[in-house]
Known about the structure:
Layout: H1 19-30, E1 37-38, H2 40-47, H3 51-63, E2 67-69, E3 76-78, H4 80-86, H5 93-110, E4 113-120, E5 123-130, E6 147-148, H6 154-162, H7 165-172, H8 187-200, E7 203-206, E8 213-221, E9 227-236, H9 237-240, E10 241-242, E11 245-246, H10 249-262
Antiparallel strand pairs: 1-3, 2-3, 4-5, 4-9, 5-6, 7-8, 8-9, 10-11
Helix pairs in contact: 1-2, 1-3, 2-3, 5-10, 6-8
Domain IclR-ED: 81-265
Pfam family, one: IclR_C
Domain HTH iclR-type: 18-80
Amino acid sequence: MAEDIERDLKPKPGVPLVRALDRGIALLRAFSLTKPRQTLTELTKAAELDKGTTRRLLQTLIIAGLVDHDERSGLYALSVGVLEIASAVHTGRELREVAAPYLSDIAELCHMTTFLWVHHDGMAVCTERVRSAQPSIDAPWFGVGARTPLNCGAGPRVLLANITPEERESALRKPLVARTPVSQTDPDELRQAAERIRAAGYELAVDDFVPGLAAIGVPVFDRSGAFAGSISITSLTSQIVDNGKPRFLAELQKAALEIGRKLIEPHRL
Length: 269
């Protein structure tokens, strides 16, 4: 989500920033799973631009086939042209392609939603999401491409535990969202949690993302032992936790092991 993203990238010395392009990218990033359609006023505020600049940039993006505009409602939305560009992304594709059938199998076995996560720039990026045909409860708040800090959710917290110490410190310097009263946002507590998660080999997160829901996350390592990402399942707490222990952990770990065995090399964003 746009409000959660903090970009650390800075122009290289001697290479000027193209402001028009930077502003256009800010507009594209303003769209999210929770706000897929927005008004000119909403986009102007989200991208921190004046209305005239926003209108001109949107018109350019419409001509380029990246944004659609509904004349009746006045709402703007990303177009299928963005998907055409996304189809050319190679980084992380192998992990996603290998993991997809395993995520589908687990989703049907558990009647839960499954996720594949990778680390990028201090954030967790959802690269695959599979919904069971008969889910106990859906988890629509994260779709493919959505980003979230590493402090909440089983899959993202597994990433926090297994990235390098330098990457972890960079992630902990980013805004850490308290989604519920039990969400951890203190860096020292999160460092301790990362050590615990890495030692245990999994994470059971309860009520820290959405009250009443829990999730289990496990890491995926390639054949060389390099960390590639994490997979997770989420549902009602009563369906995830049994007498204080995570259900379906063995199935999730087996899937992570099989995914890792099929990876030729680690693919990280």
